[in-house]
Amino acid sequence: MELNEEITIDAPKARVYAALNDPDILRQCIPGCEELIQHSDTELEAKVVLKVGPVKARFSGNVVLDKSGAPDAFSLSGQGNGGAAGHAKGSADVTLEESGEQTILRYAAKAEIGGKLAQLGSRLIQSTAKKLAAKFFKSFAEAVSAVEA
After folding, report:
1. 3, 15, 30, 113: which is deepest, by most CB within 10 A?
2. Based on the number of CB atoms within 10 Å of its own CB, is 86 exposed (0-12), middle (13-18) or buried (19 or more)?
3. Spatial CB neighbours of 56, under 8 Å, sequence gap ≥ 6
4. For 5-55, what is each residue's pLDDT tens digit?
5. CA distances (Å), origin 93, targets 5, 107, 108
6. Is residue 17 within 8 Å of residue 96, measured between CB atoms?
7. What is the largest CA-CA distance in the chain?
8. Closest to 6 (Cα-Cα) out of 107, 111, 98
9. In which domain, by residue range, is 8 found?
10. Phi/psi of residue 10, each to 5°?
């Protein structure tokens, strides 16, 4: 499964980049996020509850960031386990481009799922993933825009 999107955020690039590295902001914006622990500058651990169609599961996972292209670009990869519901792993490349007082955030993400979740059908999975991504970025854009310069 692949997702590609472009979002315009009403904040300068430095503020957007800082927010993408702020576990408190991310915890508030990730749908179903119960816990987000930063173990190092590049390693995070998350606990998220998600409902995909009839399957509801609590996922525990790890995310590793590659900030070598920062603050213009970075990538992340991670994997999570939802017990009997299944597992997921994926990665995303993110770029930030300043446009006046705004920032254009582009991402390209890939994910693979297994277990019960994989049996639900690709259309339902794709639709749910798009909704979750849209919800995250709407919350994220609002959170970043609300931060005082």
Report:
1. 113
2. buried
3. 49, 50, 85
4. 999 999 999 999 999 999 999 999 999 999 999 999 999 999 999 988 898
5. 11, 5, 5
6. yes
7. 48
8. 107
9. 2-146
10. -80, 65
Q: Give residue for tokens 């991402």.
A: 107
CA dihedral 6, 72, 98, 145 (to 10 degrees): 70
> Contact at 8 Å (CB) between 15 and 97?
no
In three state form, how does the secondary structure of the chain look?
Answer: CEEEEEEEECCCHHHHHHHHCCHHHHHHHCCCEEEEEECCCCEEEEEEEEEECCEEEEEEEEEEEECCCCCCEEEEEEEEECHHHCEEEEEEEEEEEEECCEEEEEEEEEEEEEHHHHHHCHHHHHHHHHHHHHHHHHHHHHHHHHCCC
Domain count, the chain: 1
Judged against a pLDDT cut of 80, whether residue 147 lies above it is answered with: no
Query: For position 75, which CATH number holds?
Result: 3.30.530.20
